[in-house]
Amino acid sequence: MGRHGLSFPVYSSPTAQTMSAYRFSTTPETLVISQSGSVLADWRGAYVGDTKLLIERYFHIELPDLRDSDF
What we know:
This protein has about 70 residues and is α+β, with helices and mostly antiparallel strands. It has helices at about 15-20, 50-60; strands at about 30-35, 40-45. The protein has one domain (about 1-65). Strands 1-2 form a two-stranded antiparallel sheet.
């Protein structure tokens, strides 16, 4: 497993080419991409509220809670 404790690669600084290909914006965005390049899941924004719950359910993990100072 990688440093994030997941059994797949995690990329946090995509290249300009990748950002263009997947139409990333300046809003935080999390994508799950298949080995063939298809987008399997997509979440926008910080990991709070419904977004946090959906990501936790998808990956079967528990994310830490964010504090106001984290924004």
